[in-house]
């Protein structure tokens, strides 16, 4: 089947970042629909979702991209409108998404996945059209909206990796997750689906109220209660939590470790808070035989499992706000100000 | 602390099996409260639960017991009324249960666990009092009744082993379980708690209706639909199930295997149906790279995790009927006739 | 870099199978060097290795190929002579091999890998040149010959999957492997490298003598000793073996299971011996809580680990005989007659 | 069988620590052979081995013991001379050892194991006789000396836990281990048995020469080469090591992490070097998705597997020096001065 000819050369709208860096460097441009390489498909984007990773890319703090232009956006969903040569099992009209590391199909993390990273080393979803390798596609469950699939994306894969792959979560486990950003709220939702108990922190009682509605068992305002880890441990009957989704990083890790039960598993996601040169005291890791692992997103298989988990349990990812495509810069600004609970989505 | 003196020598009631075999061999007797060995505790039994294993023991088909007398009963819960020397961390009045393999604390199956097997090589729960090693005790969560803790017991541990230890169950997985006996119904309940989907079979539409109320997604009457595995596979969209709780055994295994997705995990519990000399065709196991494992109950750690999972999710194990202590023989007869859905409990 | 032009259109020699089936259907042909698709490389074949899978393909018993022509050969090694667009990290002159399922990069078995299967759904190694996806390539360690790399291939990956991925082999474990074909002898060599003990069977004392030289601890002639599993169990001190590489399949599985220690892991490779309709008694699987899994080859990551294991331990895969390229039909005939110990290689 | 009477009340020699702390607090005393509790055995000690843990206990830095007297010594081997009631499967004359956490039979770390810890919360091996729970015993392989079994003990279990349980070591893996103390040298020996490659550090070229004889592939004098991690990484071809046995702890962890390959596993054993309040930079853990776990010894099952691995591979644990029983204080002093390579053993 050669369905490669339908849109070639037709213009479409996209956001683009160029050589300069910073949130201001984003500009809306017109591009021409490219040829579709063998093994790839062209997708009409219906929804995209934002992550802190997108802000880091815009600031030049993530990946090696420096001089070329690039369409940002690691997460999205849309409809297949053209199919390259040698593609099996994908039909025009299929509703699809993909992991931002489009070569990470299954198995363990491999730094080689960065060579094909949507929004960083490869054009991403903040565009009307996107090229994707067929091998990376995940079909959307029938009942799932494009917005919801986009919202799960990288944040959901990351939470899933911590809870399932590293955490081996089982019903009844205690999960601690920090803040109300995308990863943390999706971790809360996944844990609730799986019958685990959740403790969550925030500086806002309003956000914590939303977290309780989403299933949180313990909510702690870390501004009012700086010894939040002690509070969390007490709430578990003194034993501590089984899994930590350490979304903040080095600045909070010592406290997270002090909330851990023996053999707990802690997924360390990065350095939103804290600087790499900050040292972390690890006494509690030794005493509790705790496992700490650096986590960098996950595979296509995890994304497929994640979509299935939400779809079959009738749970929708918590979306804070949906912006139209043209207001993408405003959406990124909203993300940077951290007023949200859950995901920020672009639709259109 | 020597709390060893309170009841020594006082009489109590128990059921006992002797040299002869069969359900008729059970008799109610009066025993004297024994000395409590170091490291053990005396428990006033508040509830016991029955398993097919108890019928097999009565028939002389399980374990090596032949000539001595023995109190049957692998599952139960009660209150600590006396504590032997050298016991740490157990208080008078603690409400406790234990795995029937009282030396299986954690880790893998080891045939050595049969040397201390409640109801078989060691006196069990169908009695007013029972001696238990302190190391095997699991404390009941505050809100859990003795009946519910007893009902979870061996059947729940077995289902947990298949779903969690072997099955690595995650939300969205498809679980197939056969029949509406204790293991199967508890597997259904555990899978529901964990956000998995469940297909279940029975010869009775009434039983299947109860299974649906307990959360089953697919119910198949295997009497009306002898090609039940084909039906189950179709209901999963053609992909097949991820985990099978093969409660029947050799007689149904070929069909179970034909319902499996690639890399599915099948826990084979025994030989309720089928004879050991029956051969099983394994073509589907090879094609699907399916994992098949023989399963023999589980450890104290699993029992503790199991109680936590039910307690913290506010789910009660499905109890079909509760019999008073004196009617234990009638309860065993009721079990043998397989009219139940879930567990049969003795309280008193 | 476009190095795509060097050989296009130049003729080369290959073996080919057409519509008809059977060993006789193989014929030597001249082909023209194709264009190199994006993401692929052209490799000058220096060595290929044979497997029973190749015989099955020739007989039309494996895969879906029926009518088109196809170059057989799942295993080989050679030198990169041209590189397609978009290929990172591969240089002209690199010495490489690949798993026959060229899309299985990492992670679990997925039946989708059959769509790109060297020698079956995609042209294989029995040719002077082969096209390979860059993502599938494994570079040869400096000191490893092309013949040795080819010899490891599918048979080594399969043995590795059973011993490492399924078997979780550790030093001191007992491994049972059947026969002296490629998979079995490579399993013996891998187990020896890893400090495990090996029991191996054969109908030939001469072959068993070679197995002993390669490190086998126990050798049993199953023709002279039909109760070979009893002999193997006795040799382990009565406890049984920890891992079985069940190369024969259904015809020997019952005996293999009877040689197993508790919690043993058995990799069932196929149906060389026995028919799918033959039933297998599984009583020993239940009693010993044994794990049985169907195994279908493995991933690029496993192949890379395998090459590293042999290279760094200074062990060469046992090659029975090397045939020149033109004598490929004779080599396949030699394989079909099962006189070999280890691998049969084509070089040239 | 009641073999409980043979030695009761007879005097024997032991070393003992009392209320005061420090190496000087050790004194040789005469004790009377105790009654043997049900489930326990009396063992005539033939060999003991020393660990830094023993020094910590003497200094009052490990465990809760403060005021009572205690026989130190976590590792040893000897002969069963009397058996308590209810003990199955142990014969007079059996040569045995046990893990120092005598209640850790199998499965995961549980802080509850500290309640029965040889040499700390329970009398240990620096004595002519020791009481041991039958459930904790491991029989010595026929060909293994008491000295070798004692030398494996806690240090070997710890190395095994890092390499096998956490590390999932496979042939060809790179292992980094620090220093030439007991854990590090046993890690080197286990890794060599399993076909892995080893990099090891020391401040002494003489010790490194011994390490090379024992199989080390890379040896680095960290005094001469303060950037030892860079050297180790370079020696692995730039990729880094797969497993780290971090025997020193916080003082060296940052460098260890910088030597790690992606997905490496690091077992952090304690705080020989560095203070708990020292912070550790974890940037390399995040970048490489490295796993870091606190490790506290291991189970009876691991000890059994460890003895089997050495015995069946014909490898003897590296013993630096053997002291007679009466010179135990001198042996501890020798350990404290860290001039040894491998284990220090007491025999007699």
Q: How would you briefly describe this protein structure?
A:
With 348 residues, chain A is α/β, with parallel strands linked by helices. In chain A, 26% of the residues lie in helices and 25% in strands.
How many beta-strand segments of chain A? 15
Estimate the helix proportion of chain A, in percent. Answer: 25-40%
Shape of chain A: globular
Please tell me the total number of domains of chain A: 2
Largest sheet of chain A: 7 strands, mixed
How would you name the oligomeric state of the polypeptide chains in this document?
homotetramer
What CATH calls the topology of the largest domain in chain A is Quinone Oxidoreductase, Chain A, domain 1
**Overall pLDDT of chain A, averaged?**
93
Note the run of SSEs of chain A as H and E: EEEHEEEEHEHEHEHEHEHEHEHE
CATH level 1 class label of the largest domain in chain A: Alpha Beta
Structural class of chain A: alpha/beta
CATH superfamily of the largest domain in chain A: Medium-chain alcohol dehydrogenases, catalytic domain
The most extensive interface, with participating residues per chain, is: A-D, 33 and 33 residues
- The number of helical segments of chain A is 9
Distance between the termini of chain A: 29 Å
Could you tell me the strand content of chain A as a percent range?
15-25%
Q: Which CATH-level-2 architecture of the largest domain in chain A? A: Alpha-Beta Complex
- Which ranges of chain A are low-confidence, i.e. pLDDT below 50, for 5 or more consecutive residues? none
Radius of gyration over C-alpha positions of chain A, nearest whole angstrom: 20 Å
């Amino acid at each position: 089947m050669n369905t490669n000819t339908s849109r070639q050369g037709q213009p479409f709208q996209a956001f683009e970042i160029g050589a300069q860096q910073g949130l201001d460097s984003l500009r809306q441009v017109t591009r021409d629909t490219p040829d579709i390489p063998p093994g790839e498909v062209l997708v009409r984007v219906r929804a995209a979702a934002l992550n802190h990773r997108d802000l880091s890319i815009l600031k030049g703090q993530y990946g090696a991209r420096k001089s070329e232009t690039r369409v940002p956006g690691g997460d999205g969903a849309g409809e297949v409108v053209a199919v390259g040569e040698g593609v099996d099992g994908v039909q025009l009209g299929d509703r699809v998404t993909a992991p931002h590391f489009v070569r990470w199909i299954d198995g363990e993390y491999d730094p080689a996945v960065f060579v094909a990273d949507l929004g960083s080393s490869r054009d991403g979803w903040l565009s009307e059209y996107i090229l994707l390798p067929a091998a990376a596609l995940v079909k959307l469950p029938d009942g799932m909206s494009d917005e919801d699939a986009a919202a799960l994306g990288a944040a959901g894969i990351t939470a899933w990796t911590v809870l399932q792959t590293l955490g081996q979560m089982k019903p009844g486990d205690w999960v601690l997750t920090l803040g109300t950003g995308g990863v943390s709220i999706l971790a809360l939702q996944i844990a609730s689906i799986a019958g685990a108990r959740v403790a969550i922190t925030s500086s806002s009682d309003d956000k914590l109220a939303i977290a309780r509605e989403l299933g949180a068992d313990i909510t702690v305002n870390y501004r009012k209660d700086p010894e939040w880890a002690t509070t969390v441990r007490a709430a578990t009957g003194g034993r501590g939590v089984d899994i930590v989704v350490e979304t903040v990083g080095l600045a909070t890790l010592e406290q997270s470790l002090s909330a851990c039960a023996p053999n707990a598993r802690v997924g360390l996601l990065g350095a939103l808070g804290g600087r790499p040169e900050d040292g972390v005291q690890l006494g509690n890791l030794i005493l509790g035989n705790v496992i700490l692992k650096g986590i960098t997103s996950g595979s296509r298989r995890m994304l497929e499992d994640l979509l299935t988990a939400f779809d079959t349990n009738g749970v929708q990812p918590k979306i804070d706000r949906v912006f139209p495509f043209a207001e993408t810069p405003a959406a990124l600004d909203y993300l940077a100000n951290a007023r949200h609970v859950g995901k920020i989505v672009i639709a259109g």
